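subagent[fold] <- orchestrator: predict structure for attached chain, return C-alpha cells only, no commentary.
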Amino acid sequence: MSFIRVLIANRGEIARRIQRGCRKLGLESVAVFSEADRDAPFVVEADHAVSIGPATPSASYLNVAAILEAARATGADAVHPGYGFLSENADFAAAVEAAGLVFIGPEARPIARMGSKIEAKAAAEAAGVPVLPGYRGVDQSDTRLLQEAKALGTPFLVKASAGGGGRGMRLVTDMADAPEAIASTRAEAQGAFGDPAVFLERFAARARHVEVQILGDTHGTVVHLGDRDCSLQRNHQKLIEEAPAPDLPDDLRDDMRTAAVRLAQAIGYRSAGTVEYLYDPERAEYYFLEMNTRLQVEHPVTEAVTGIDLVEWQLRIARGEAVGFGQSDLRFDGHAIEVRIAAEDPARNFQPETGTITLWVPPSGVRLDTGVGEGSVVSHHYDSMLAKLVVHAPDRAQAIRETVAAIDRFAAGGVGLNLAFQRALLTHPDFAALRHHTAGLAELFPGGWRPPEPDAQSRALAALALHLHLTPQDGNTPWQTLGAWRLIAPAGRPGAAYYWASGDDEPIRVESNGYGQSIILPDGAGLATEAAKLGEGRLTARIDGIPREYIAHLCRAKNHWQVHLSTLDGLAGFALETLEDRYFQAASGKTGGADTLVAPMPGAVDELRVAVGDRVAAGDTLVVLEAMKLLQSLTAPVSGIVADIYCAPGDTVAGQAPLIKLDQEEAR
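subagent[fold] -> orchestrator:
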C-alpha cells in the first residue's frame, strides 16, 4: 500500500491543503484542473499538473475516466478526493482501486452504505446510536408514505435517501401538504441524485448540529477526535463551525463520542470520517443525522484543539500505518472557530459574486486555508467558498473576540465577500449566549441582514484615502504645477477634487490647503484633517488635533475604486467613482434599459420560462440562472410582451449580458 505520488481529485483550498499534507510526508502531488482553473494557485504549486477538461464540473472534476487517465499519465499511485465532487462516490473509490491505485479514504462499501440515508440510519440503529422517529421502509408507495406521515404527525421532514447539502428535503407542518411534499421531494431526488427513494423523519424545531470526528485505521482501531458545533447555517449550508461543541452536558458529550466510534467500528471504517447528530437542548437528547465518509470542510477546528493533522493521518492510514495514539493520549486544548469566506452578497439574498480579485490582504497570525489570491478569477462554475479563517484561543469568548479582530484586518477587493455578515453573526448576542440553532438565521435578523450604515466621518475618510492615493505626494510632477485640478482626476496643488459614492448624485468634495484637507459630504457634513498620509495599508491624520490611524487598502473594482477602511463596525468597503469613471461610464452607456432583463452575474441558463409573444407582469420569473452551484430566479423588470429572447437553456452568459427584451407598449 505504499505510494509516493498522490493525485488530488479536487480544486481550490482543499487541493492546496492536501498538497501541504503531501509535502509534510515527502510525497509528490498531482493537480488535475479544468480550463477555468489553469492559472489557479493549486495548479501552480503542485509538483505535476494535468488538464482534464472544460470548466463544467461534469466534464472535468466529475469525469472519472479523465482523472484516472491523468493518474496513469503522471505515474500517480494514489488518489485523494478531498471533499465535494467525487469524495463520497462509492463507484469512484471502486474505480480507483480497480485501476491499481490507493484510494485515500474509506473503502467503497462503507461509502455506499453511509451514502444511503436509509441504510445509514439502519446501521446506526443496529449499532445502538439514537435516531429520530420516522419511516425508512422499502415500501415507497404514496399510500404507505402517507399512512406513516399521519402516524408520525407534524412537523416532519420528507428527505431524499441519497440527498445531501440541504437538497432533497421538505418540511411539512400541515398534513394537507404531505402529498405534494412527498411528490416534489421524490422528483428532486430522482433528478439530482438518480434515486427517488425518500424517508420521513420527525422535525426537531430548535436543534443544534453537533458532529464527532473519528479516525480509523486498517488494523481495527477507531478513535474519536472530539466534537464540533456547526449550528449556524443557511439553507442547511454551514456558515461558522467551532470545536469543541459548547454547552453540552458531559455525560451526553461522552455518549455522542463513544456512539460515533461504535458506529465506525460496526461498519469497518478506515480513514477520517464524521458522524453528525441533531442535538435537542430542550429534551437533552441527540439523534443520528448522517455520516460523512470524507474529510470535512471544518476539519481545521479539530486540528486546532487536538494538534492532530487529519490529512497527514489520512495519508498514513492509506499506506497501512496504524493510528499512532490511543484515545487516552488525546488532549483537547482551548477553543477554535472557523469562518467560511464566500464570494457572495448577503445583503442581496446572498447573490454570488464573480470577477477578478484585485486586492487580497488577509490578517496575519491566524490560519487561513484558501485557494485564491490577488489576481485570481472567481468564476460562476464552482462553489462560492474561497477561504476558511481559523482562530484558536484559550476559551470560546476569546476565540470570538479574536475572530472578529481577524475579520477587521481582512481586506479583499474586486469581488464581494460575506465577511461583514459573518462578523455580524459572531457579534450577535444570541451566538454568544448559545441561543442559535440550525434553522434560526431568520431569528437573528428578522428583517434580513443589512450592512451597518457608515458614519459621516468614515465616508469622509474613505474619500480622503482615495484622494491621497490618486494625488502625487512628492511635489515634483507636472500635474502639481499646472493647476488646481484637471477635468478627470485630482491634482496635488491646493484646490478641490470630487468623488462620487455609490448611489449618490452629488459628489464628495475634497479641498486641500496648506495645512491639510477639508472633506465636504453631499449633505453638507464636513471633516477637517491635518498631516494626512497614506501608505503601507494605513491612513494617518490629525483630527481635532488628535493623531488617528486607520487600516486603509485601495483597489480597482470594475468601473470604480474600492476603499477598505477600518470603522467602529469593522473593516468597511466604500465604492467611489472619480470624474474620469463617470465620464467613461456615460460614454459607454448601459447594456440594458428598463425594458431589458440582463444577467446580474456570469452563469449558465438553467431554465427559460417564456417564449416570444408571452405577456408577463413585473416580478414574474423569466429565466433561472445557475451560478456557483446556486439557482437564481431572474424576474421581469417591467410588465410587457416578450419581444426578443437572446439566450437558451444551457447557454453560458456574461455578467450584464441582455437576456430578454420586453415591449412595454403592448402591456395591458
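orchestrator: received. Logging for downstream: The CA atoms of residues 219 and 499 lie 68 Å apart. The longest strand covers residues 222-234.
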